[in-house]
Amino acid sequence: MADEKKKKKREKEASITPKITMKEIKRQKTLLIWSAVFFVYGVVFCYLPLGGWLMAFQKYKPKTGILHSKFVGLDKFRTLFSDPQFFRVFRNTLAMGTLNLITTFIMAILFAILLNEIRGNLMKKTVQTISYLPHFLSWIIVTGILHDALSSSGSVNELLISLGFIDTYIPFFSIEKYFWPIVAFANCWKETGWNAIVYLAAITSIDPSLYEAASIDGGGRWAKIKYITLPSIRPTIMILLLINIGNVINAGFEIQYLLGNSLIVEVSETIDIYVLRWGISQMDYSLGTAAGIFKSLISIVLIFTGNSLAKAFGEERLF
Predict the structure, then answer these.
(1) Average pLDDT value for the chain
(2) Chain-centre distance for alpha carbon 49
(3) CA distance 251 to 93
(4) Alpha carbons 300 and 290: distance in angstroms, whole number
(5) I want to staple 135 with a disulfide (CB 3.0 to 4.6 A). Which of 11, 194, 230, 307 is the partner?
(6) Backbone torsions φ then ψ of 59, nearest 5 degrees
(7) What does 127-178 look like in DSSP terms, one character per residue?
(8) In what helix (H) or strand (E) does residue 70 lie, and over which residues does it extend?
């Protein structure tokens, strides 16, 4: 009986799976050519450079190259994990990455829902277009705006003093406890409008008859958001959350490097800055590569952990 069920299942799968014929290949040759182009691009620029990871297991010297540098095994990793400074930058990276994930993720969903509630198309498109603009600004411009706004004579200090919240100027870039919130705010301001595009697309695909039925039943805007909008975009939210979890360790480089200074170096340095300082400035390429490998492994662990949790709770998952 079990064998018959398996046989029927295989026959059903075989009937569903399309046969690959020369006629089908010719019909879709354009798609196949473009797929091949992107495949080659991925291999050349994403996988071949991984050969450089060999430097982490060598005492690499540019003069001798990867093939002739002395093999030292895991010595660079031991040096890395015995350095208290590395664990400090790892803490900073993880903390800022988590703050960035929470703020940008939640704000993008809220912004998309609020934008969807705007009734006038002209107003909606205007707000949507304006919200995209910060994404196209480089970090050097964003940090310049932040520096001017939060400096001792900046608009934020002037506003707080005029409203009576503070008596003297606050040196925002000299106090450690303000740095992480500033980084989170900057990422949120820059990326919220851009990140909301996917959620807006998911919202527009919801069947309008569901909202009409809710209106007939007396449901208001909040009820529609709670019982229709959020459950409908839940799969999209879960997939994007899993993807973004892998980027937690990529807390950034530019904003921390540009806004950081010697007074707040204990909280401003990330793994990328650590790699820059030791891997390039001090020409210890092997140690920098080891730090980069550790960062990649943490990202992989986070993605697999998040995917396993999603599977355990019956949510959408990546694989």
Answers:
(1) 88
(2) 22
(3) 6
(4) 15
(5) 194
(6) -95, 80
(7) HHHHHHGGGGS-HHHHHHHHHHHHSTTSHHHHHHHHTTS-SS---GGG-HHH
(8) strand 70-71
Q: Which residues pair with 70 in a beta bridge?
A: 59
Q: For 109-120, write each residue's pLDDT tens digit.
A: 999 999 988 888
36 and 148 inside one domain: no
* Domain CATH for 210: 1.10.3720.10
Question: What does the pLDDT look like over 189-238, one tens digit per residue?
Answer: 999 999 999 999 999 889 989 988 988 888 888 999 989 999 999 989 99
Q: Minimal CA–CA distance to 268: which of 95, 80, 83, 82?
A: 95
Nearest-angstrom CA–CA distance, 18 and 14:
8
Domain that holds residue 304: 74-312
CA distance 78 to 193: 43
Give yes or no for a contact between 52 and 67, defined as CB atoms under 8 angstroms apart.
Answer: no
Distance CA 232, CA 219 (A): 16
Q: Can you tell me the distance from the alpha carbon of 284 to that of 83, in angstroms, rounded to the nearest whole number?
A: 14
